[in-house]
Amino acid sequence: MENLKTGSTPTEAEVEFNALKSQGDDFFRIELLRQARNFYEKALARNPESTEVKALLDQCNKMLGFENRVVWILLGSTAVVIAGTLLFL
Questions:
Q1: What is residue 68's predicted lDDT score, i.e. its pLDDT?
Q2: pLDDT of residue 71
Q3: How far apart are the C-alpha atoms of 81 and 13, rounded to whole Å?
Q4: Distance between CA atoms of 49 and 14, rounded to whole angstroms?
Q5: How far is CA 22 from the centre of its chain?
Q6: What is the pLDDT of residue 1?
Q7: pLDDT at position 21 over 70
Q8: If DSSP states are collapsed to H, E and C, what string results for 52-86?
Q9: Which residues 6+ apart lie within 8 Å of 54 measured at CB?
Q10: In which element (H, E) is residue 17 found?
Q11: Strand, coil or helix: what is 50?
């Protein structure tokens, strides 16, 4: 991805990488993390040295992990409420 730094015409791979990263950024901004992760993974496959995309991918994974924990906590709480309600019927 050095061409972008030197001002020369970007290669097809660089254009594709930038488009994939940009799509990932768009999804990340609106918090569609699974879609963002998908595009960041594709971008990283085109440019494995990109520390920025690696960091964004790591951030997506951390946020998705937190989201999954919250969902399980909510499901557990809901199950307790339902069970309690059924006991008192």
A1: 65
A2: 73
A3: 53
A4: 13
A5: 12
A6: 53
A7: yes
A8: HHHHHHHHHHHHHHHHHHHHHHHHHHHHHHHHHHH
A9: 44
A10: helix 12-29
A11: coil
Considering only CA atoms, which of 52, 60, 65, 72 is closest in space to residue 34? 60
CA dihedral for 78, 81, 83, 89, sign (positive or negative): negative
pLDDT category of residue 88 using cuts at 50, 70 and 90: confident
Copy the structure tokens of residue 35: 């879609």
With beta carbons less than 8 A apart as the criterion, state whether 43 and 53 touch.
yes
- List the structure tokens of 42: 């594709």
pLDDT tens-place string over residues 24-75: 999 999 999 999 999 999 999 999 999 999 999 999 999 988 776 767 777 7
Q: Hey, what are 24's tokens? A: 């990932």
User: For residue 74, which amino acid is it?
Assistant: L
Q: Which two tokens stand for residue 78?
A: 């809901």
Instruction: Report the predicted TM-score, pTM, of the whole model to 2 decimal places.
Output: 0.70
27/42 Cα distance (integer angstroms): 14
For the chain, give the number of residues. Answer: 89
